[in-house]
């Protein structure tokens, strides 16, 4: 039987990454940041000079790019594209916007499906994204959908960027999040919606620790 999966979906800035990573570490499970895969494709495509309309070439890039998320060793925590550390490059707002444009295409999503499913390995997986519970791991025994007001999500993004020494404008971030929310929610293929069997958690007034404990508590009773 397949290894268990906990899915954590939601819009940008809702705290999925922080929560999913911490839960995976506490359970000793694998972790999938599926947004990073879309961002890696966006970066590869950008470098290859492709635009969102060149779907056939984009599918080839999606199949060929070599991606690694080392969990141990000197490069632990890095995101590697064809061996190069692109952890910072993929976090730019530019890359996120382009990723969300590419993510509207069914053929592109399909090309990335199997690559995401390969992360499901014993003893288990915590997967973070937009469609983990609805499409990629629809059979997951435990699903969460994290939300927060768009203002709070913009504040969190802002703080995250400042901590990394990247300057950003709060009002711009707010507009960009709104644009990405709209694109992710309105697309016809795998739109951003909670799975029917997902637990919805509004994190606007919750600390990351409180959300992590909530997920862990549910996971201990269920998987
Ligand atoms: O989560 P993150 O901001 O890194 O994701 C970047 C973009 O990739 C999202 O705005 C979304 O359009 C796309 N994405 C997706 N499905 C996923 C993860 C990310 O469509 N499972």
Give an account of the 3D structure:
- This protein is of the alpha/beta class.
- It is 49% helix and 13% strand.
- It has helices at residues 16-27, 34-47, 55-64, 93-102, 106-117, 132-136, 150-163, 170-186, 208-222; strands at residues 5-9, 30-33, 67-68, 80-81, 84-85, 125-129, 142-147, 199-202.
- Helix 3 packs parallel to helix 5.
- The longest helix has 17 residues, at 170-186.
- It is globular, with a radius of gyration of 17 Å.
- The model has no long low-confidence stretch (mean pLDDT 94).
- Bound molecules: cytidine-5'-monophosphate.
Shape: globular
Proportion of residues in extended strands: 5-15%
User: Radius of gyration, rounded?
Assistant: 17 Å
Q: Overall pLDDT, averaged?
A: 94
Number of strands: 8
Major sheet details = 5 strands, parallel
Number of helices: 9
H-E string: EHEHHEEEHHEHEHHEH
| Structural class category | alpha/beta
Subcellular location: Cytoplasm
GO molecular function: ATP binding; dCMP kinase activity
Organism: Spiribacter salilacus
Family: Belongs to the cytidylate kinase family. Type 1 subfamily.
Features:
alpha/beta, 223 residues, 9 helices, 13% strand, binds cytidine-5'-monophosphate, 5-stranded parallel β-sheet, 49% helix, 3-stranded antiparallel β-sheet
